Prior knowledge:
By secondary structure, the chain is of the alpha/beta class. It has helices spanning 11-21, 38-43, 65-78, 93-104, 123-130, 145-159, 174-194, 209-221, 236-253, 257-261, 282-295, 304-316; strands spanning 34-36, 48-53, 83-88, 108-113, 134-137, 164-166, 200-205, 226-231, 267-269, 324-329.
Amino acid sequence: MTPAGRGEDSVVARAWRALEQIPRVGLAEFPTPLLRMKRFGAALGGLDIWFKRDDLISFGLGGNKVRGLEFLLGDALARGADTLVTGAGCQSNHVRATAAAAAHCGLRCVAVYWGDPPAVIDGNYRLTRLLGAEVSFTGDSDRASVDRGIDEQCVRLRTTGRRPYAIPRGGACALGTLGHVLATRELFLQCQVQGIEPEAILLAAGSGGTHAGWLVGKALLGYPWALQSIAVSRDAGATIAQIQRLAAEAASLLGVSALLAATAPPIVHAGFLGEGYGIPSAEGTDAIRLVARTEGILLDPTYTGKAMAALIALRKAGQLPFRSVVFLHTGGEPALFAGDGAWLPDRAASSPELSCVL
Ligand SMILES: *Cc1c(COP(=O)(O)O)cnc(C)c1O
């Protein structure tokens, strides 16, 4: 089976061609590995589960943000920018990857963080500074203060003769979303080569750009994957709204707005955020430990750990009745090196949870 519409001059074929013609800076080598998690799947009662290892993206310690940055860098360079300006919380994977991308392309990077400077320079914040980004803090614990901070930094840079390129908080914008449309085709082709037919794709949703790109890509491929995400940053309603906005913007860039409008709305699971974005949850920690001890693979406490906790709980509740699933491992491991690790209390190596989850 080939992706729907390829080789014909259909709306879909034109969309794939349009996508290939949008400027992009190659930062990493693709495809990322698609690996079967046999022992973890057995611990889940015999689920055929595969990890799409975007945590292994071969640039800047990886993670899903690199996919979007390839397009954002393409645009920044085409516009003659000399400085990338972006922001988020100081443990942001997106800001770390942006700092790496800027360095790689000979650009400067200004990072705007909400809140105040942390007492300890660790995790992604340490890496972002090591990569040469200039950092500033809004002094306001409201995450939206970053959006104003990015605008202010761009104004300041312009007055000093620099050419800033603003990347929205978390990289959530239409161009960034396109990186995930490409990922969809990448996985589709990889499944063909490996001879597997997963029924569902599961992922963590923060800003929603990744899910949005997969939604558009799935519509272009016309492939009947179930596509579901777990909200780890906002409530389900706000997450769905973000995904729909970003998907609509990306679809419009590719001339497939009507195709997208005809697809079902995104499915987003809520109830796994715990105390809040970036605060590890007990269930997420258990999921991280289980994957670590069955597979030797590390998830992160902010995104993939909570998404995996959801997969485990929903599966237990009979709400994910799939035989085979691809879990997008979107990265985030540097967060494991932030803070004192008090959220990860030690547990005996042979705790019963490992032998029987379901
Ligand atoms: C940003 C991020 C996500 C979520 O991606 P969005 O496109 O913001 O929804 C998931 N996992 C990791 C590790 C991330 O850094």
